[in-house]
Amino acid sequence: MKALALKVATYGVMHLIVAIIVAYAITRDWRIALAVGLIEPFFQTIAYSVHDRIWHRIERRKMRSGVEETAEAVTARLDVMNAREQSRAHGHGHPGHSHALPTSLRQIAMKTFTYSVMHFAVAVAVAYVLTGFNWRLALAIGLIEPIVQTVFFTVHDRIWARIEARRARDRKLAAA
Predict the structure, then answer these.
(1) What is the pLDDT of residues 106-125, one digit of tens each?
(2) Are 51 and 98 in contact (CB under 8 A)?
(3) Packing angle, helices 2-27 and 30-59, rounded to 10
(4) I want to staple 19 with a disulfide (CB 3.0 to 4.6 A). Which of 30, 37, 67, 68 is the partner?
(5) What is the value of pTM for the model shown?
(6) Cα–Cα distance measured from residue 16 to residue 149, given in angstroms and rounded to the nearest whole number
(7) What is the pLDDT of residues 2-24, one digit of tens each?
(8) Cβ distance 116 to 33 under 8 Å?
């Protein structure tokens, strides 16, 4: 659990640093860059919650309590749910895991597309306000920052996969 918390924390720090660096590279203003790095994720979190609630209604799944929703969201995002928990998503007389993927490829694609559009719109809107209503800088930040984040996410994920593989190998050797 400690390693998982460290992985999440390092991802958060990496995301913040990359957002600030990209915003600074585009605006050449450290105050705007810092504001983008700190403020934009706050609004993205709110927008994600709204998006998720809309998809609950679309998929006609029952909502769970706020605490259960949060716990399930964290476990789903961190891929620590077991197969039984994952299968609760649809049917079987249970309201289902609220953060499981939709069952059809069409729904998965639509949910991903709508999330991407929402994320882009929020990023551009926040950057637009923070850059003093400069739509060119806002569009640049809204387009470039997610691309750079994707590259860094992949690098971060690969580093952690190697760390986890090394730890598993060390545990195996210690047990032998």
Answers:
(1) 888 888 889 889 989 999 99
(2) no
(3) 120
(4) 37
(5) 0.67
(6) 10
(7) 888 898 889 889 989 999 999 99
(8) no
